[in-house]
Design brief:
There is one protein chain. The chain is mostly helical and about 90 residues long. It contains two helices and no strands. α1 packs antiparallel against α2. The chain starts with 9 loop residues before the first helix and ends in a 21-residue tail after the last helix.
């Protein structure tokens, strides 16, 4: 059985996805190669979605941890930074 390629980091995954899309759109590859590229593309897409979801959860956790429990309404609710008056 062929060994599956390991998953690269997020940015490299996106680059590889773009390359796969370009090759498939060119239409100069066989059906078998197209299916292999499609399968790899699905794997990379899921990997990227998971990475984005993990990053979003980490950001939410960091934002919640940095928010004071008694923040006033004059503060930016997500950052705890006082708003500037434009007067």
């Amino acid at each position: 059985m062929a060994r599956k390629k390991s998953l690269p980091n997020f940015e490299k995954s996106l680059d590889e996805l773009e390359s796969i899309v370009t090759r498939m759109e060119d239409g100069n590859i066989s059906l078998e190669e197209s299916l292999k590229h499609f399968e790899r593309g699905i794997l990379l897409t899921r990997h990227c979605q998971d990475a984005l979801q993990n990053a979003e959860q980490k950001i939410e956790t960091l934002m919640n941890d940095s928010r004071p429990s008694n923040a006033s309404e004059a503060e930016e609710p997500s950052l705890g930074i006082p708003r500037k008056d434009n007067n």
